Amino acid sequence: MSEARTTNILEMSHLTKRFPGVIALQNVSLKVKAGTVHALMGENGAGKSTLMKCLFGIYTMDEGKILLDGKEVSFANSKQALENGVSMVHQELNQVRQQNVMDNLWLGRYPKKGIFIDEKKMYEDTVAIFNSLDISIDPRSRVSTLSVSEMQMVEIAKAVSYHSKIIVMDEPTSSLTEKEVDHLFKIIRKLQSENVAIIYISHKMEEILKVSDEVTIMRDGQYIATKSAKDLTTEEIIKLMVGRDLSQRFPSKMNQPGDVILKVTDLTAENESSFSNINFELRKGEILGIAGLVGSKRTEVMESLFGMRSLSSGMVELHGKEVHNHSPQHAIKNGFALVTEERRSTGIYPDLSISFNSIIANLVQYKKGIFLSDRKVHDDTKWVIDSMKVKTPSQKTSIGSLSGGNQQKVIIGRWLLTNPEILLLDEPTRGIDVGAKYEIYQLINQLAADGKGIIMISSEMPELLGVTDRILVMSNGRAAGIVDTATTSQEEIMRLAALY
Amino acid sequence: MSTQAMKNSKITKWLFDHVIYVFLILLVIGIVIASPDFLSVTNLINILSQSSSRIIIALGIAGILITAGTDLSAGRMVGLAAVVSASLLQAGDYAYKMYPNLPELPFFVPIIIAMVVTGLFGILNGVIVSKFHVPPFIATLGMMISVYGITSIYFDRPPYGAQPIGGLSESFTKFAQRGIPIGDYEIPFLIFYAIIFSVIIWVIWNKTQLGKNMYAIGGNPEAAKVSGVNVAKNIIIIYMIAGLLYGFSGTIEAGRVGSATNNTGNMYELDAIAACVVGGVSLSGGIGTVPGVITGVLIFQIINYGLAFLGVSPYIQFIVKGAIIIVAVAFDMRKHAKKK
């Protein structure tokens, strides 16, 4: 055993992965010893998932090499990785929910007796694996009836059934209760004793320090350090994760927060596993940031304000008067606007023109009789292009052919045409290059200076610190605190984000 | 929650989960109350034998629906099989034979030929859907139109032109029209064919790798792919099996009616899809059972037969059938609907 723990089962060395305009990984290395738990840490967007996607062949790396058990490998897809003993327990579980547990476990390689499936063997093999892992799930129960934790157990059992040497767990505890986490850790220990290596991706410091042997930290697509977990403290990890300068990436602020325009009291989602008891106020001309880790339900809060999700309780007051946004139509009428996180899937109509994309949220304004007024459409599109500084050859250009930053400007312009009072921005600079980000920040600043109330979700800590006035930090569906941007630090926000 | 209330909610849940069977029973009870004579062995035999070829078609389409596909070409393939098999099965002494010099073949040879032909078209459907990624609705819409053209060319040609292919040999009409005498009644062979195919399809769906893969592909194609399922191959086989079923169904349709034209089978696919949907097959894939499909077909057949038996206008029957399709799916959506 002790010998096994000194040999590297996996060596990824000097990986580089470029996307158009972005270097996602730069010369990153990761060495994992057999029979150990190796934590992989970094802020959202640090490159952890990209690194894992390179391992599983979902992305092809541009440079570098991967050694598995001393032999160079390059998997074409996750199936190949699986067959070579490298498996992943996904954050979003990839299961056929309509089928039962054992059907899922053996999908693609059912034991057979002649031309028929050997259900008995399938059942017995499943029970044997479940027993060895102390999992008590009926192999015949339908996956859709399982809890998230149980589905995860099934995924782990599946990895074990492939005799995996390495199991990657991506945020495995993000939706587990404390008791379920203990069970997971027991399973991890058991796997470890059988010389399986675990790559453990998580944001939760205490968990990491408790379960892992070694920790590798990444930042901005670069390798920062690998340290033994027992030599690390939460503070040190945070320092390694965030250590970068904030100079000159943000325009100077010019907005002046005024009176409270929006008051949110005890907002609780109808779906119990979502958020609860969210309280905050937003002032005229203020930029309120929402920070939190993936899974902290930030987007859910924003979508609830915009009438896209049902609430079980809570009150939203606009200018001291209660408003009920039961649908986006209501929300728009009440002066709310939402720029969604997934620009490609829920923001733009990629094949249609800038003009169409500019006016689509607000067609009523262009009606002249039963037709739409071409002149007004033209004028407003021109306003969007000019005031948002959209770089485009013409109004008729399809928005899909613009850069991400210019697309985002059109979307923001679209919502400004509805003349909102409250502007909700969900990750407004995601997938946008640094220069264009600056322009978006300027725009946000300008809008606040013009008296709009702005709520902005961001996973990029420096961005929140550079742009907002105050920051609501969410943790696991709860408000962990509201901090003043001028006096807070990344460390404080990180600590709050990991609070629950 | 009190135990009584829990019991009640359990009963409600059971009723919800088995709503089509409950509906079938209520339907029969309703018709029997309106006219007690309805309960007779003859009526039962008639309903079952009329359902037989529809069950076979519906089972083919159901497999495709479970993969989250659809097949609009089913009815036209039934027509193609009917015309091909009938043309090869005309009695030796019949005056208007399509192939005057063809000796009288054993009845199973043309059946196999017809099934091979529709099986090949099924494969073609599957290839277009899985290899060229044409949406199943479009792929099979195109196939539906093309197959009609092919059937018509085959059907409308010298020496006798476009006229029903009749005068089928006795061995064949026996195969489709007669049955096994039991007591005072004759149980049509048709019913046995439907039972045999239902059993075969049930075994494929529940006991073989192909069946499990079919559910997996419809339920979560991504999961199926990463687990190493050859999605394209499985889809092609499912469309092929459907083609074979349409082929068999087309031949017995020709035998049952005693002749075939290029319009035989027209619109059968819509009846079959409706029966599947009422029988609990999900159009978004991954869900469906053989008993459900059979029940769906029977519900429509009982409505057809029962309302006619009661003397209800056929126009009203259409209204009832249409409403049932919509209500059934609305129920189903309610069952699956989840609040965000």
List the helices and strands and how they pair.
The complex is a heterodimer of chains A (500) and B (340).
Chain A: E1 8-19, E2 22-33, E3 37-41, H1 48-55, E4 63-68, E5 71-73, H2 78-83, E6 86-89, H3 101-105, E7 112-113, E8 116-117, H4 119-132, H5 148-161, E9 166-170, H6 178-193, E10 197-201, H7 205-211, E11 214-219, E12 222-228, H8 234-242, E13 260-269, E14 278-283, E15 287-291, H9 298-305, E16 311-318, E17 321-322, H10 328-333, E18 336-339, H11 343-347, H12 354-359, E19 367-368, E20 371-372, H13 374-387, H14 404-416, E21 422-426, H15 434-449, E22 453-457, H16 461-467, E23 470-475, E24 478-484, H17 490-497
Parallel strand pairs in A: 3-10, 3-11, 6-9, 9-10, 15-22, 15-23, 18-21, 21-22
Antiparallel strand pairs in A: 1-2, 1-4, 4-5, 7-8, 11-12, 13-14, 13-16, 16-17, 19-20, 23-24
Helix pairs in contact in A: 13-14
Chain B: H1 3-17, H2 19-34, H3 41-66, H4 74-87, H5 108-130, H6 136-155, H7 170-177, E1 179-182, E2 185-188, H8 189-207, H9 209-219, H10 221-226, H11 231-257, H12 268-278, H13 290-309, H14 314-336
Antiparallel strand pairs in B: 1-2
Keywords, separated by commas or semicolons:
heterodimer, A: 500 residues, alpha/beta, Rossmann fold, 2 domains, 6-stranded mixed β-sheet, 17 helices, B: 340 residues, mainly alpha, two-stranded antiparallel ribbon, 14 helices, 2 strands
Task: Write up this protein.
The complex is a heterodimer of chains A (500) and B (340). Chain A is built from 17 helices and 24 strands. The mean pLDDT of chain A is 88. Chain A is globular, with a radius of gyration of 25 Å. In chain A, 32% of the residues lie in helices and 26% in strands. Chain A has 2 domains: 4-242, Rossmann fold (3-Layer(aba) Sandwich), CATH 3.40.50.300; 260-497, Rossmann fold (3-Layer(aba) Sandwich). The longest helix of chain A has 16 residues, at 178-193. By secondary structure, chain B is mainly α. Chain B has a domain at 38-266 and 281-287. Chain B is globular. Chains A and B meet through helix 2 and strand 8 of A and helix 9 and helix 10 of B.
